[in-house]
Amino acid sequence: MRATKATRLAALIVCMTSVLALGACAPVVLRAPSASQAEDSSESRETIRTLRADQQFAELPITTVAQQARAMRPEQPFNILALSGGGANGAFGAGALVGLAQSGARPTFSVVTGVSAGALIAPYAFLGPEWDRQLADAYTSERAEDLLQPSGFGVVFGSSAYRGSPLKRLVEHYLTDALVQALAREAASGRLLLVATTNVDTGETVVWDLGSIAMNGGERAKPLLRDVLVASASVPGLFPPVIIRVQERGRLFDEAHVDGTATVPFLVPAGLAQQPRGFDPSPRPTAVYVIVDGRLSEEPQPVQLRFRAILSRSISAGLTHMMRTSLELTATSTELQGAHFEYAAIPAAYGNLAPFDFNASTMRTLFRYGYDCAHTGRLWISSPRIANRDTDRAGGDGTSESIRCPAEDQFIGRFAVR
Q1: Taking CA 285 as the corner, what is the angle to CA 284 and CA 291, rounded to the nearest 5 degrees?
Q2: Among 50, 384, 98, 119, which residue's Cα sits nearest to residue 267?
Q3: Angle subtended at Cα 272 by Cα 374 and Cα 60, rounded to the nearest 5 degrees
Q4: Distance (Å, rounded) from C-alpha 242 to C-alpha 232?
């Protein structure tokens, strides 16, 4: 289903206004956070919600979890991959991962994090090239074309403009028993798979350790994984919030969660890249890679001085600047900690970019573009700068074939297997 311009504009407006007024996303929460949880909310950005063997959730400091992961893989480099949100534009990141694998330039990532569309890609990035066929199918088949099903009067009297059931069915289709078992095996080796959602009540980011859920969830593992993945991709106002039942500190309560990008565009907590303190006779290199499923700048274009055009352009520009600022801050902080940093984003010159256009043909084209750039070694950029628009084009027709890849010629070959 190809979204019309009016649909995309309405989606963008609903998304932005819902982010600014997050409490309006869910009219009812079955149980509000307790006083102790409210006190802990200020620490939510620095903790990971991990499922223990007794099936109780615990909030653990990110630095502690990272140190444990390093200790379990003492001989391995510590590679971190962060996947941003972007809706249908996630096809770029999916294609890039498959292209990296086909060229032999895709490392094993010690940590994979995902937000929104990035959360749906993250399990496959975590499991490795053996699961690339499923990843490619998710973004090149027609299964996503019916995601935007209007909820009727739900946009006025309910919590969302679109039904949540199509997204839930899509996640359930790919979340097989074999995938859950594979996640558990990889997590047992010390690797981390982290996904971010936004708690509607607290307005804070919640970072979920999906590997611990796969290992310790038992019969509840699959539905819990599904709920977290659906919640992370549920754009507030567009899709309804997901109620997740959490057992913590001996208590059982329900929380409403929505898209992680309401609070973070991508997830690279400072504690993950931080080098361990103390004497380390053989320090392992830390590398951080970020795939942005969107642009970091926009092509100049004439805008009609009308309400819809001005609002749409302003919202789009604001979100783009937020992403770029977050990327620059992440690059600075990781490099100050001694970690290597690289990123990739869709160039501003790439045409037909629409996060709510789930047409299979559009996503296949973007998937192929990401694949080609990665496969030919032109994906990664080693500093957060915006390339000159004149150098983004190899031709003049604005098609994907004429758009240069994220990395300029001088960056070709900088990415190496670690």
Answers
A1: 135
A2: 119
A3: 135
A4: 9
pLDDT tens digits, one per residue of 4-62:
554 554 555 445 544 444 444 433 344 444 444 444 444 445 899 999 999 999 999 99
- What pLDDT sits at residue 109? 96
CA distance 168 to 19: 21
Buried b (16+ CB within 10 A) or exposed e, 377-416: bbbbbbebeebeeeebbeeeeeebeebbbbbeeebeeebe
pLDDT (tens digit per residue) in 264-286: 999 998 888 877 665 454 467 78
Place 349 in a pLDDT band, splitting at 50, 70 and 90: confident
Say how far residue 56 (Cα) sits from the centre of its chain.
Answer: 25
> What's the pLDDT score for residue 5?
52
User: How are the residues of the chain apportioned to helix, strand and coil, as percentages rounded to the nearest 5?
Assistant: 45, 15, 35
Looking up tokens 């709920």, which residue turns up? 227
Q: Check: CB of residue 214 under 8 Å from CB of residue 225.
A: yes
Two tokens, residue 402: 């004429």
Residue 382 and residue 414 in contact, taking contact as beta carbons nearer than 8 Å: yes
What the block records as the tokens of 415 is 């990415």
Question: Distance between CA 299 and CA 347 in Å, rounded?
Answer: 9
Give yes or no for residue 338 having a pLDDT over 70.
yes
Residue 49 has which token pair?
């919600």
Output the pTM of the full model.
0.84
> Over the stretch 179-216, which tens digit does the pLDDT of each residue have?
999 999 999 999 999 999 999 999 999 999 999 999 99
Whole-number Å distance between alpha carbons of 324 and 137: 30
Length of the chain counted residue by residue? 418
Indicate if the pLDDT at residue 339 is higher than 80.
yes
Q: Degrees (nearest 5) of the Cα angle 405, 382, 286?
A: 130
What are the CA-CA distances from residue 297 to residues 19, 294, 363, 367 (Å)? 21, 9, 21, 20
* Cβ contact 48:29 at 8 Å: no
Cβ burial, residue 180 (10 Å; 0-12/13-18/19+): buried
Question: b/e for 57-81, b at 16 or more Cβ within 10 A?
Answer: bebbebbebbeebbeeeeebbbbbb
> Nearest to residue 287, comparing CAs of 364, 342, 360?
342
Please state, in angstroms and rounded to a whole number, the distance separating the CA atoms of residues 48 and 63.
10
